[in-house]
Each structure stands twice: as C-alpha cells, then as structure tokens.
Specification:
Largest sheet: 7 strands, mixed
Bound molecules: adenosine-5'-triphosphate, magnesium ion, zinc ion
Distance between the termini: 51 Å
Number of strands: 18
Radius of gyration: 31 Å
Number of helices: 26
Strand content: 15-25%
Strand order of the largest sheet: 12-11-13-14-10-15-18
Structural class: alpha/beta
Shape: elongated
C-alpha cells in the first residue's frame, strides 16, 4: 500500500520496511492502546512517510494519553495536524500539541454540530461492549443521517466517498478479495486499474485493514469511504451466496483460526539466528492470519490441494478445485519465507531444513469438522515449494452408488468385491479417485465377521473396524513386507495401496490364489492393458489369468454446475466421431454452465467418476494365458459388455452431467 501522500524520498525497500514497522506498531497499539513507545515510533514513521492522515491520528492518540498523565519531557518531535494547509512531509516544525485538540470521531461530530454532546454520550453508552462502529450507532439511533455521516467522513479523512447501492462491481475485482476477508474488515473492492485497487471502507484510517488487503492482493490500495451499513449490504449483494451466510463463515473462520494446532519448532533451532528470524516472521500475526485464511478459504472452496509456489520473481498460491489448478493469489515474494515457515511450524517440520524434501501433517478443526492437511515441501531452484493435500473425512463420499457407476459396471464391480477370493485391480492416474473407489468397496463389504487389512502409503482415512497399516519404505515396511506379515494374520480381505514392484505383485497374487480377496491399484492406461503390465513385471501368465477377477479403470470429470446449467439442442450423432455408439436417441439436449458465483464462473462444479470395468471372463483368461495382444483382450471385453472410459464419459454427456470437452479432456480415444 502506498501512503496517500508519501514523498519519493525513499527506495521501495525502505518504504516497505517502514510500512512493515508501522504495521507492527499498529498491532502493538491494538493490543495495548496506551503504549506510548509504539505510538512515538509510529509518529516518527508517518512523519518520515509524509502520511499526514495517519500521523494526525497517532498524534491525537498521544495527545489523549498525555491528558491522562504528565507529559514525558523532551518529546520535541513535530506534531502535524491532519487539517489545515499542506503540512511539510517531514515535519520538524514546532510542536502544536495543544490541549483540547479533538481527535475522536464523536468529538469532531459534536464540534461540527452534527450531533449534541448528549447524543454522543448515549451512543457511546450503547457502543460499550460491542464492536459496532460509533457512526453506525449514531445512524441507527437516528441522531445523524447516513448521508451526513458519509460526507463528514469523507471530509475528515480527505478521501472521496462512494455510494454503493447502484454500483456494479466486476466479478474479477470481487475475486481479488475473498468474501470472508471483505466481511471481516468491513471493506469492499470496487475497482481495479493497473495495480491500484479502489477499496470502499467504513474507516479509511484502519491501517490494519488496508494492510491486510494490500498484503492479500499485492495491490496498492486507494481507499474511499462508505458507511458501514452500505458496505455490509453491498458485500452481501456482491458476493451473493458467499456473502449471505457470511456470519456463519466468520464464526467458522474465527473458530478455525483459534483452533489451528500449532506445534512449536524444536528447541535446538533456537539460537541459530536465521532460523530464529524465520520463526519470528512466521509467528507474526498477519502471516498467521494469512495462512489460516488460505487454509480456510481452500476448505470453503472445496479444494483438494493447496500449492505455495516460489518463482524467480513472484510467489503464487494455487488451489486445485475439481482437479484443475486455479491461481488464487500472489502474495508478495518477500512473504515467501515467512509463509512457508509458518506451514512448516504448523506441520511440525524442521524449519531449519530448507534443502531436503519433508512431509508432515496439519490437523485443523473447522466448524466441528476435523480436517487433515498432508503437507509436503520440496526444494526447487527458486525456493521451497509446499503442497498441501486436504483430507476432509466428512466430505468423503463412500457410497458406491454415488460415485458415478453406470448400472452394468456397478453390478460387475459389486459381484467382484463380494467374491471370496481373487484380485481386483484399479487403475488410473494420480488423483483419479482410486482410493475413494477402494474405500467405498471396503465400506460396502465391511462387516464384523470378516477381517479386512490394508497397507497404505499413506493411510488417508481411518475406516472403522479395519486394520490399517502405514507403509514406510525407510524402515523396511514396504508393501511387500506388509503383505507378507498380513498373511500370518488370517485376513479375508487385503487392500494393498499400490502394486508398484514385482515382489508386491507376486505376494498379492499368491494371496489372491490362496483364499483372499485382494484389492489394489496399478498404473496402466485402461483395463485391457493391465494384464500385459503384470506380465511385463514378470508374473507368469498362468498366475495372472487365474488370480485376476476384475479390472477397473477410472477418471474424474468435472460436472456442469447445477446452479447455472442450461440445455442446448444437440444431436446424439454428433458424438459418433468421438467413439459413441448411438442408441437411437436422435435429437437430444446437452447441458453447459453459463458461469456463476457458485462455480467461480467456470460453468463446472463438482466431479463424477467415469469408469471402465472389465470382468475377467473365461474367454479373457484364455487370452491372458496365451499372452494375447491387448487389442484382442479389448475386443472380447467390449463384446462382453465393457464400455470404454470414453464411451462411459459420453454417456454422461447425454445424461447432461458433463460436457463433451470435459470428456475429451480426461479420456483418451
Ligand atoms: N467418484 C468421485 N466423485 C467425485 N469426487 C471424487 C470421486 N472420487 C474421488 N473424488 C475426489 O477426488 C480426489 C482424489 O481422489 P482419490 O484420493 O480417491 O484419488 P487417487 O486416485 O487415490 O489419488 P492418488 O493417486 O493421489 O492416490 C478427492 O478429493 C476425492 O474426494
Ligand atoms: Mg490414492
Ligand atoms: Zn455455475
């Protein structure tokens, strides 16, 4: 934020560091309004910066304090009233700290005869113990009209006033400041030109709010004044849905913020200066606030991952929402170390270690929900990159009927998971919903009379009544080792997080052939190529053909936003070039999202799984045994009812759930 009347005597860096010192002092004063040391320092800073408005306020507060107790001698620093003709930017003039200078809003209103002393007293009594602004109270008590208050504020602060009721705000501008932040600070972004953001504020002297928004948006802030009530109404209108339950969100946010469990760094680091500084900066209130805000914002938007990414000249925060990364903000590069350290402290990682990758966890309670963040840091050439995977148990959907199966595939899959033995393999790229499908399968078959054991890396959710084991390669507890020890524990069902090496595959297959149901994942493109993958790994064809029960391939496709979807005329035949086999629908309606608040104007919101399910029939067993080419397996599987990922995806287009573009994006032909 550039001080309104700052003179260019300083380099950007000096100005920045002065600004930061000022912020710190403001925070100290917020906690202890009578800290004269901090006020004096602030006075000096604002004098240097030539920021008359704020200087005036500080001087006012000092004067107020001086009235309470004898004035400390020797304070000859200049005092400039914010009013009157242009005060010199670096004031060294004579002191004009007259007794009786009126600084408080109420006093000034009385002085200008806008209200009476008695009205002021009544309003102040009303205000006691609340957080309501005096101005709002005066308006509410009808001592003052909204218009008069506004023009008074505008004059006092020398900033323009703005009427918000007829203002149409560009959604792009709204996006710069999240609803919760706007609501909490009583501000509303209304216009952006270049890197200047015009911000409507109830109190343009609220340095903390100015700083928070500047901090958040990385833009210079041009404050304009509006009444608190008008801002609240406009905020609710502008942010729509997001704004209407802002009260809830605020309490959630506060709750979340206070419930962030911070695990302190270990003692051994204290004393190394640079680390000490890192920790100090990471503990600074705005850093803590910003980080909490990022976490809560990510949860609220339903993000699955948060990326904090350093680049050569910038720092970027991105959220993965419905599988797609969105840029959320670009905090100033200088905050990079502080933010990264903050996350590391929260995740109980070593903040001194900046050259090796680290993994940790953050537990956050948010609105009675416990949410886990799996944190991973990785040194890149421009600094440490942090990725947080959000594991939200509550939003976990473990119902096979709701994942996106078509009836045929669901029937096949259900049969397989209720078989007494054999191997079921799930394949799909990272983040395609494999674990969710596996957990849903386990959830479906889980009952007290069967023993289910899992080896996972990592264990993402705790499943009731299931023995889950965390794989740890470093101590030799590999998937293969875990599987081996499982077999001594009399399991009925075994879940192996991932089959990525021959040994794991061998033991898994052996288990499947000796009376256990084995569920696992493997990396292949589709179902038919899975057999070939196992053979490539070195498993003999007769073992693969006799163990394999069913293969499932999956992708996640974004759904058309249900809040702004609209139909348009289409033709089933238009899907043929993409591999669709027409079923005689002819003229149909497809759906697309116009874009709205709910979907952040992308037209898409939420995801659905697209499945390809291949039961391993006798015919397919024979093909595997003969080491037949994948193409042949595919042909037979299709003849027996399997529909490809692409075909199942296009079916969802016909059902109006997703779009052709989305299906083409997530499936190969
Ligand atoms: N059928 C589904 N419908 C909607 N969202 C889903 C579905 N399945 C999974 N998701 C969501 O997609 C994200 C990734 O899912 P999941 O962790 O199951 O994928 P994965 O393939 O196991 O990922 P990884 O490769 O990282 O292990 C999660 O946020 C999950 O909630
Ligand atoms: Mg997984
Ligand atoms: Zn929408």
């Amino acid at each position: 934020m550039a001080p309104p009347s700052g003179k260019a005597f300083f380099s950007d860096e000096e100005r920045q560091s002065l600004g930061e010192s000022a912020r710190l002092c403001e925070m100290i004063i917020e906690a202890n309004p009578s800290d004269t040391g901090a006020l004096e320092t602030l006075k000096e800073i604002y004098t240097k910066l030539g920021d008359r408005e704020r200087l005036a306020l500080v001087v006012g507060r000092l004067a107020g304090l001086a009235g309470d107790r004898p004035l400390a001698g020797g304070t000859s620093t200049a005092v400039q009233s914010g009013r009157g003709p242009a005060a010199p930017a670096s004031g060294t003039g004579p002191s004009d700290r007259r007794p009786g200078v009126m600084w408080r809003l109420g006093d000034r209103l009385v002085a200008e005869q806008l209200i009476t002393t008695e009205q002021l007293q009544r309003a102040l009594a009303e205000q006691r113990g609340t957080r309501e602004k005096l101005g709002s109270i005066l308006v509410r008590m009808s001592f003052l009209t909204e218009d008069k208050l506004l023009s008074f504020l505008s004059r006092q602060y020398s900033v323009p006033s703005v009427t918000l009721s007829h203002l149409d705000i560009d959604p792009e501008v709204l996006k710069l400041v999240p609803a919760q932040l706007a609501e909490r600070l009583h501000v509303l972004p209304i216009k952006r030109s270049g890197n200047v953001l015009t911000l409507a504020m109830a109190d343009p002297t609220n340095v903390l709010a100015l700083d928070d928004v500047a901090f958040f948006t990385n833009l210079q802030i041009q404050p304009v004044v509006a009444s608190e009530v008008a801002i609240r109404q406009a905020t609710e209108r502008a942010y729509g849905d997001q704004g209407s339950n802002v009260a809830d969100m605020m309490s959630e946010l506060e709750e979340a913020e206070s419930d962030v469990e911070v695990v302190e760094g270990q003692d051994e680091f204290v004393g190394k200066t640079d680390v000490f500084e890192l920790k100090e900066s990471a503990d600074e209130a705005p850093v803590v606030r910003l980080m909490n805000m990022i976490l809560v914002d990510a949860i609220r938007r339903g993000a699955s991952d948060i990326h904090l990414e350093p680049y050569e000249k910038m720092f970027r925060v991105r959220f993965r929402i419905d599988g797609v990364l969105h840029e959320i903000m670009g905090p100033p590069k200088r905050l990079e170390a502080a933010l990264t350290s903050r996350v590391k402290i929260m995740a109980n990682l070593d903040i001194a270690e900046r050259r090796l990758p680290q993994d940790g966890r953050i537990k956050l309670r948010y609105h009675q929900r416990e949410i886990d963040f799996r944190v991973s840091t990785l040194p890149t050439i421009f600094g440490e990159k942090t990725v947080m995977r959000i594991l939200d148990k509550e939003s976990l959907q473990l119902d096979l009927n709701k994942l996106g199966f078509d009836p045929w595939s669901l029937d096949q899959f259900t049969r397989a998971i209720t078989s007494p033995h054999g191997m079921i393999m799930i394949t799909g790229p990272t983040g395609s919903g494999k674990t969710t499908t596996l957990y849903s399968a386990i959830n479906t078959i889980n009952s007290p009379d069967i023993n289910i054991m899992t080896a996972e890396d990592p264990v993402e959710y705790n499943l009731k009544g299931v023995n889950q084991l965390q794989v740890n390669d470093e101590i030799g507890r590999t998937f293969a080792a875990a599987l081996r020890s499982f077999l001594r524990q009399d399991p009925d069902v075994i879940l192996v997080g991932e089959t990525r090496d021959l040994e794991t595959a061998q033991i898994g297959i052996r288990a499947a052939l000796t009376g256990h149901l084995v569920l696992t994942t493997i990396h292949t493109n589709d179902c038919p190529s899975t057999a070939a993958r196992l053979l490539d790994m070195g498993i003999p064809p007769f073992l693969v053909s006799s163990a394999l029960l069913l293969v499932l391939a999956q992708r996640l496709a974004r759904k058309v936003c249900s809040d702004c979807r609209e139909p348009y005329d289409a033709d089933e035949e238009s899907l043929i070039p993409y591999g669709h086999v027409p079923e005689g629908y002819g003229k149909v309606s497809f759906y697309r999202g116009k874009g709205c608040q709910t979907c952040s104007f992308t037209g898409m919101k939420g995801r659905v799984a697209i499945y390809e399910v291949m039961p391993v029939s006798q015919e397919i067993r024979d093909l595997i045994l003969r080491n037949a080419p994948t193409g042949e397996i595919r042909d037979v599987a299709r003849a027996q009812g399997m529909r490809s990922l692409r075909q199942n995806g296009l079916q969802k287009v016909l059902e109006g759930i997703t779009t052709v573009e989305e299906v083409l994006r997530v499936t190969l032909s």
